[in-house]
Every structure is written in C-alpha cells, then in structure tokens.
Amino acid sequence: MKAIKYFVAGAMLSISATAMAQSATVQAQIDEITKTVVEAKGDVKATKDAVKLFMKSYKKDADALAGLGRAFMKAGNMAEAQRYAALARKVGKNKAAGYILEGDIAAVQDDGGTAASWYQQATMFDPNNTNGYVKYARVYQKIDANGAVEMLEKLRQVKPDYPVDAAAGYMYSQNDRLKTAMEYYDKVTNYQALDDYILYDYLTTAYSLEDYDKALKLARIGIQKNPKYASYFKMAYYAATKKGDFVEAISDAQRYFSTEEAENIKANDYMFYGDALKGAGQLEEAITQYEKAFQMDNTKTDFFKSASEIYLAKKDHAKALDYANKYIDAIGTAATYKEYETLADIYIDKSENVAEGEVAAALFEADKVYGTIADKFDYAKEYAVFKRAAINHQINSDIKKGQAKPYYEQFISLVEPKAEKSASDLRKLATCYNYLAVYYIQNDQTSKSKEYAQKLIELQPDNDTAKQILAL
Questions:
Q1: Rg (CA), the chain
Q2: Which end of the chain has the least Cβ crowding within 10 Å, N or C?
Q3: Are 67 and 80 in contact, with CB atoms under 8 Å apart?
C-alpha cells in the first residue's frame, strides 16, 4: 500500500506542527530519547534508564508520551510503541497525539482501515488538530476518495486558513490520480505557504502530466523560496529541456550539480543534462554527460542513440554509424525498422558530404539497409522497397539503364493486388508506372510502354507523359 507507507513518512514531517506547540525543552527531550531508542534498536532493557528518567518528567504529557512511542515505532518495536500510544490516550483523552500514533502504527503495518479509524477518533476528540484530518484523508483515499475529500472539507471549516486544496492535491498525487491532484493543486494561490515537499510534489505532478510550463514556473518559485532544496534545480532543468529552453536548462543543471545539498546523482540527471547540451549545440560536452549516464546505468541505451545523432550532426559518419549499430544491438528484439532506417539516413547524409566519386558507394550502403528492412520487417516491406527504388534512381538517373526498375516492379507486385489502396499507395504506383513507361519507350518497347502509360493515365488523367506515349 504505497499511499499508506508514504503517508507515514509524511507523518514524520508533521510532527513539527505538534512540536511547535510544545516548549523547546520538551521537544529537545523527545529528540534526545528518540536518538537513544533508535540507536538501541528499540531494546527495552538497553533504554530502561533513559525511559525512566523521561517518564519521571512527562508521564502526564500526552504529546511527550506519543513522542516516546513514536521513537519505539521508528526503531521497529511496535509493542512498546502501542503501549505508549495507549498511555498518551489515557492521560490526554481529548488530545490527538495518542490517537494519531495509534493510526501511524496501524499504517506502518499496512492496516489502512484501522489507521483511518484512529485518525477519525483524533478529529473527534481534538477537532482543532489538523493532523487527524489530513492523515485520515490520505489513508482513506484508497478506500473512498469522496469520503477522504469530505474529511478535508471538515478541516477547512475548522481551520479556514489551512491549505486544504494542497493537502487534497498531495493525497491524490500519492495515489497516482494525477489529473485530480492537479485540479486541487491549481486552486492553491499562496505557493509560498506550501511546505517544500508539497510544492515539489505539485511541480512533479505537473511535469508528469507534461505541463512543462507550469512545472518550470513552480520550480522557479521553489528555488526562490528555498534555494538549498536541490531538487528544484533538477526539475527546473528537466522541464526546461523538455520545453527546448536549452540555455536556461544548462544553467539550472550546473547549479544542480554544484549544490551541496544535491541528491545522489542519477543516470537520468546526466541524460537530461546531455540533452540540454545537445540542444544548445555543445555536442562534445553532451557526449561526456551521456557517457557518465551509461557508466552509471548500462540500461540507458538511449546513450548510443543520442551519441549517434551528435556525431551525425558533426558529420562524423563513421562514429555515427558505430553508435547507431550499438543502439540496435543494445535494444535487440525491441528494434523497429525505424532504428535500421537511421543507418540508411546516415549513409544518405554521408553521400551528400563526400566527393562525387564516393557518392554512389554511400548510397549503395543505404540501399542495403533498406534491403535488410524489407527482409526483416514484413509490415515495412512496401515502404522499404519504394525507398530502394528512389535510391537506385538517384544512383543512376538514366532511366534507360533501369537501375531502379526491379524495385519499382517489386513495389507494383506488392501493392496492385491490395483490395483497398490508400492515397499514398496510388501516388507511389503512379511514380512506378511513370518510370516504367519511360523505361520501355526509351528501350523501343512501345507496347509495353503503353501498358504502363494506360495504368498511369487511369490514376492521373492529365499526365502529359502518359498522353504522349498513348498517342504514339
């Protein structure tokens, strides 16, 4: 139950709200006993003296007792956590602390129904404590989203200034209902009042829904609000890269990587930085980042694809081909004809950037690739055969020689039998008929030429070539 587990993590964050109501001295004592209990892994004997001393001062303080119970919960000793939760409820029947701890214990144990019941009791006995409402809504959303929202609306009545819409947005987001989350998040007007984890969730929700403008705007607000929260910079350059604002993305990426509080760098962080650098034309730097991503995670096979694109832009066709082939090898059976066509595109680009005597050789390599596509991908066979015809015509544009003839004929044999032909099919057939009609007339085979001219004029009644041949 992802929502519940995350919810408990949120519960830890919300302790600060309770702590603010306590004296600094009490909170310091709770922090100290928590450290002792956690270091002892919840061992009752090892913590006996420290707990006894703590209880001497706070045995009638519900919040302090709940804090002690939470320490044992954090250490994994649920029995002791339960014991102090019960004590907290006993000494503070009308305080939320004990009920909320009971709910958190149930939530940690993946008992969402019991957790919700305890949180509901917290709202009944201590209606001015916001934690009960929020936690109930988050855990209950899996069971009844409408009931969860109703609880948040009750909170709005109790504390009109509480960011209920933000709480609802976070609740729905954690349960993967992103569109509904955005409906609530977009009602928020005071971004500065949001906790960082809420604001960050808002912007990542926008990003997940591909609203990169909004995500970038929220990242900017976050950076202004808390520049030490490194993930704001991270999401800023992710969103800016998606938007195509590459210079801005590079600046944010550099700030992210230099932030002391930055999270552990992930392979995707390097990939996005590489994409931004590539978009800005800083190709060598982009490859460096892609290599870092691949070294960190060898499943990042897009590295090969991006490197190939970069080397193609640099007109280094040998390296472009090398990385394109590595990409095809890396993705294996997931490769489609498009990945193979990338190889043909590289050869075609090469043919446009070499000496005249080397053009044909490059085009022949492109032709071979389309031959492979025709053999390997039945669904792309027509497309590949027609491309072969066009390439061979480019290799030798003298129609009388018939360099492209076998491929135009093959395309006709594939498409003519089809019961239904698309507009694209008909246009391509017309090209084939035109080529063959001219080929046969130039090779003094008038009757054969007229055969194709007749087919051509049926598709294109105003075709001058067909008219001239048929008039012979």
A1: 34
A2: C
A3: no
Q: Give the Cα-Cα-Cα angle 164, 161, 61 (nearest 5 degrees).
A: 90
Query: Could you tell me the maximum CA-CA distance found in the chain, to the nearest angstrom?
Result: 116
Q: What is the pLDDT of residues 324-371, one digit of tens each?
A: 999 999 999 999 999 999 999 999 999 999 999 999 999 999 999 999
Cα–Cα nearest to 169, from 147, 144, 194, 143 = 194
* Residues in CB range of 330: below 8 A, 6 or more apart: 301, 304
The confidence band for 123, taking pLDDT boundaries of 50, 70 and 90, is very high
373 is written with which tokens?
A: 């596509």
Query: Beta-carbon neighbour count of residue 76 at 10 Å?
Result: 12
- Determine the distance from the C-alpha atom of residue 26 to the mean position of all C-alpha atoms in its chain, rounded to a whole number: 44
- Displacement of CA 329 from its chain's centroid (Å): 24
The set of residues, in sequence order, having a beta carbon less than 8 Å from that of 328 and lying 6+ positions away, is 335, 339, 340, 343
268: nearest Cα among 240, 243, 303, 223:
303
**What's the 3-state SS for the chain?**
CHHHHHHHHHHHHHHHHHHHHCCHHHHHHHHHHHHHHHHCCCCCCCCHHHHHHHHHHHCCCHHHHHHHHHHHHHHCCHHHHHHHHHHHHHHCCCCHHHHHHHHHHHHHCCCHHHHHHHHHHHHHHCCCCHHHHHHHHHHHCCCCHHHHHHHHHHHHHHCCCCCHHHHHHHHHHHCCCHHHHHHHHCCCCCHHHCCHHHHHHHHHHHHHCCCHHHHHHHHHHHHHHCCCCHHHHHHHHHHHHHHCCHHHHHHHHHHHHHCCCCCCCCHHHHHHHHHHHHHCCCHHHHHHHHHHHHHHCCCCCHHHHHHHHHHHHCCCHHHHHHHHHHHHHHHHHHCCHHHHHHHHHHHHHHHCCCCHHHHHHHHHHHHHHHHHHHHHCHHHHHHHHHHHHHHHHHHCCCHHHCCCHHHHHHHHHHHCCCCCCCHHHHHHHHHHHHHHHHHHHHCCCHHHHHHHHHHHHHHCCCCHHHHHHHCC
pLDDT digits (tens, 9 = 90+) for 264-277: 899 999 999 999 99
Contact 149, 137 (CB under 8 A): yes
All residues at 6 or more sequence positions from 70 whose CB lies less than 8 Å from its CB, including other chains: 15, 34, 81, 101, 104
Distance CA 329, CA 343 (A): 13
Distance CA 115, CA 5 (A): 12
Rounded to two decimals, what is the model's pTM?
A: 0.65
Choose among 131, 181, 180, 189: nearest CA to 155.
Answer: 131
Q: Residue 75: which residues within 8 A CB-CB, separation 6 or more?
A: 37, 38, 40, 41, 42
